[in-house]
Design goal:
alpha/beta, Rossmann fold, seven-stranded parallel β-sheet
């Protein structure tokens, strides 16, 4: 089986050089992982980057990686659950490079858990960061562009289980469903003002910023490539290329759309139904015990 050919080499760009010259891009959770992969591709195309994250070490790592390719970069500590902190972050971004023309809502929280084991606080935390944080950042960005009368672009990073449901990830799947709905709602509301809103869904793209639980699950899974219709996992830069296109002048008539970058994995079906393995069993947990 041939599968999908490998992507172009790291450092290649899908758009003309300088496509984002003079543009400022703010990426939440942009210091590591897929957020950094997205930021790097905007940087290679001439954008100035503002990275927002709660972790100083993540911000430092992201700034170092972007500086290494010659990108102007500023960092700001921000808890996206806090509207006042978000306003401060945007003030800092404007002070550094001017009002960002692109917002990438990448920051999220996630960990696998059977639904019955989720505490109210765990549920609230994931929904608060993933869904509420995405809305609050979008609102701050949108309000500033509405006041200024300037066009802009928002990209929300979502997940395919927003449509299918996600056993073992009830909190994240519900939050990501809201994130996809925000794409569709805000694209219509803010379209007359020239503000485009789109989504991106990554497939399996292993990277260093995966949670320990998810990393351990992948480590227990043999031959990840053979488990994808494309016969290989994705490279983080492939998500970055999709992001730069969706926010670029070449996609100005694309809004309200969520692009899935996963080699068709989320549409995979088998001719016969495989045996059902309960989530608790998949995670190596025993029977449910009330009160634990």
């Amino acid at each position: 089986m041939v599968g999908a050919p490998p992507p172009p080499e790291d450092g290649a760009s899908a758009l003309p050089a300088g496509t984002f010259a003079g543009e400022t891009v703010l990426v939440t959770g942009g210091g590591t992982g897929l957020g950094l992969a997205i930021a790097l591709e905007f940087g290679r195309l001439g954008a100035s980057l503002v990275l927002a994250s709660r972790g100083d070490e993540h911000l430092a790592a992201g700034a170092e990686a972007l500086s290494a390719i010659g990108t102007e970069v500023a960092t700001v500590a921000c808890d996206i659950r806090d509207p006042e902190a978000i306003a401060v972050a945007f003030d800092a971004a404007e002070g550094a490079f001017g009002l960002p023309g692109v917002l990438v809502n990448n920051a999220a929280a996630n960990f696998p858990s059977p639904a019955e084991d989720l505490s109210p606080n765990a549920w609230r935390t994931v929904v608060d960061i993933t869904l509420n944080g995405t809305f609050l950042c979008s609102r701050e960005f949108g309000r500033r562009h509405l006041a200024a009368g300037t066009p802009a672009s928002i990209l929300n990073v979502a997940a395919s289980y927003a449509w299918t449901g996600g056993p073992g990830f009830a909190h994240s799947a519900a939050a990501k469903a809201g994130v996809v709905n925000l794409v569709e709602t805000l694209a219509v509301e803010w379209g007359p003002a020239g503000i485009r809103v789109n989504g991106l869904v990554p497939g399996l793209m292993p990277h260093d910023d995966m949670t320990a639980d998810i990393r351990a699950s992948l480590d227990r899974t043999p031959d990840l490539d053979a488990r994808q219709p494309a016969m290989r996992v994705g490279a983080p830069r492939e998500l970055g290329w999709a992001a730069t296109f969706m926010a670029s002048p070449y996609a100005r008539f694309v809004s309200g759309h969520t692009m899935v970058v996963d080699g068709a994995n989320w549409q995979r079906r088998t001719l016969t139904s495989p045996p059902v393995v309960p989530v608790r069993e998949q995670m190596g947990r025993g029977g449910f015990e009330p009160g634990t």
